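Project standup — Tuesday

K.O.: blocked on the structure for the chain from last sprint. Re-posting the sequence here as requested.
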Amino acid sequence: MSTSMHAADAMIAALTARQRAHAGQIQRLWEMTAHERCVAMCRGELTPAQLFEWAAQCPQEVPLIDGEFAFIAAYTPEVEDRIR
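H.V.: unblocked you, prediction finished:
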């Protein structure tokens, strides 16, 4: 087997593992209640992928700050100054 074939196999294995990890993170997100998701977000326990999945699927559940999703607004200069 050539070196490029080994590299391709390694890349496919890495991508497959990443997809499985992502699917597991999303599954864990939906195993939580809406309240548990809010608490996990405030503690910084949700990944960006989980946050965006939550916002896409249940935007009405995600807390807002000044009309923006809290997990995004928290990093704007206007809000960052208020929460520190």
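K.O.: great, moving the ticket to review. The mean pLDDT is 90. The chain has five helices and two strands.
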